[in-house]
Design goal:
Layout: E1 19-21, E2 33-39, E3 42-46, E4 57-58, E5 68-77, E6 80-87, E7 97-101, H1 111-129, E8 140-142, E9 149-151, E10 157-158, E11 163-172, E12 175-180, E13 192-195, H2 202-214, E14 218-229, E15 234-243, E16 257-262, H3 275-283
Parallel strand pairs: 2-6, 11-15
Antiparallel strand pairs: 1-5, 2-3, 2-4, 3-7, 5-6, 8-9, 9-10, 11-12, 11-13, 12-16, 14-15
The chain binds zinc ion (ZN).
Length: 292
Amino acid sequence: MYSSASQLPFNGESFEGRFVPAAATAAPPDPEGRWFFIQDQSIFLLEDRDGIGRIPLGGIPAAFEGQVESIVHFGSYLDTPCWAASVRAGFAVPAGYVCERLAPGQIQLSDDLLSLCGLAQQATFWEATSRHCPRCGEATVTIKGERGKRCLRCKNDHYPHLHPAVIVLIKDGERVLLTRKSFWAKGRYGLVAGFVDIGESLEAAVQREIREEVGVEVTDIRYVASQYWPFPSQLMIGFVATYDGGELRVDQTELEDARWFSLRELPDLPGKHSIARFILDHYARPEGAGGA
Ligand SMILES: [Zn+2]
């Protein structure tokens, strides 16, 4: 269990200074360092290595030369430049590598490496989606020393789009209301979550998502923690709320199931890398079991 949300993977503080993002470091003249080869939401890792050693080091490995669509310097890890490279579709896994889907909770990586892979994935996503101006369609160029892109025709500047989403634990004394999506691992339950809408406060988003997904009302909405989630660019803002009436009514379009669980008989929960689990670990513990 993480004792503080600052330890959660993908939150910049979790690196404790080991990683410095690109906005604060100039790109080196030559692409040399650690190579994060991304294909959609998968990463190529060296076989039979451990930790950061699974990420190739040096110049671009020969097997990938001519196979990448973009290369982005996204920061430095332990003073070594980090490069995110988007590998073209259909490229087969070269000898000595494995290709693994970046699914936190399934992929087995150290926290630092998981966070770095997430940032690399986000960097390639932003690169792939910012080549043209969303206003006029003209090509863009990187704004020097920044993450942003500038349109060559209308001179509009564009920056990575971050998407705030609320995630909330609903409590009622010694029970909690958990939800389940059909594509989750069998028997797994988690929290109500959803994107913040235009013109909406976080508290209003919490109330709306809960109403939509499970039909109940809540009060005493308290912010507890947040987690950056680079798949591709969510900011998860975590809350705990107290049940305040209404009949449980499951939104069948979004959820497979939702039900009340006793704190003493919780089901299978989301993986420890997620803020959902962090909130459950800290705020869904029975009386006398300690915790926040
Ligand atoms: Zn433009």
